[in-house]
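Retry 2 of 3 after timeout on previous attempt. Resubmitting structure tokens to design endpoint.
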């Protein structure tokens, strides 16, 4: 079913500071919310406007981006409905910004990946953390789909949450078929989480992507 209410968003900066800045759309993990994810704001580029968006489906005391068939396996109709909802919001929101980039963690990585696969031309860069792309969800995944898009993929190889087959499939496609300008980083000991060194690397990556695209 389509989502009708406008997204709930926690912003890193006040409205008068947003025009002309890079917009980063930050998508939290499954069962979390925008308020908890917004705690990352001090570790992200201060020159950006970061929109921490709440997922539309209530789940486990928090929110989820889509219904699924298991971890990292979205139902096609559900991920498509959320993608349409987010693109409708972006159609209005993005106009005042210099560019739009994505940042997604875990289930939010799958959703960010869905947006990226659906309309790669909309995004200046993507930061994908501790997750998988949304495979077998009816999204385009042909060779070269992300040609020229800067993509940062950060994770711990020992992450026990995301199924190993999905991580392997994501890695193979990003490296060999996507066409993306991929920066892949491993963070031993991270587990299924986010660490300060990872955010430092991701922020530097975003700044380079914005400078190269200017």
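Retry 2 succeeded. Sequence:
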């Amino acid at each position: 079913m389509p989502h009708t209410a406008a997204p709930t968003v926690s912003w890193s900066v006040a409205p008068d500071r947003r025009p002309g800045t890079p917009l980063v759309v930050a998508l939290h993990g499954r069962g979390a919310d925008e308020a908890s994810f917004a705690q990352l704001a001090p570790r992200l580029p201060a020159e950006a406007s970061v929109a921490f968006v709440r997922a539309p489906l209530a789940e486990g005391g928090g929110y989820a981006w889509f219904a699924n068939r298991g971890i990292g396996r979205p139902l096609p109709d559900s991920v498509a409905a959320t993608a349409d909802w987010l693109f409708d919001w972006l159609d209005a929101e993005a106009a005042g910004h210099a560019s739009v980039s994505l940042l997604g963690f875990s289930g939010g990585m799958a959703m960010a990946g869905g947006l990226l696969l659906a309309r790669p031309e909309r995004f200046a860069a993507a930061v994908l953390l501790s997750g998988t792309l949304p495979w077998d969800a009816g999204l385009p995944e042909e060779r070269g789909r992300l040609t020229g898009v800067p993509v940062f993929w950060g994770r711990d190889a020992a992450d026990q949450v995301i199924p190993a087959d999905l991580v392997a499939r994501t890695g193979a496609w990003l490296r060999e078929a996507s066409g993306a300008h991929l920066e892949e980083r491993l963070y031993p000991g991270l587990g299924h989480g986010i660490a300060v060194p990872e955010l430092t690397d991701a922020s530097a990556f975003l700044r380079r992507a914005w400078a190269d695209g200017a």
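Attempt log closed. Residues 12 and 46 are 9 Å apart (CA to CA).
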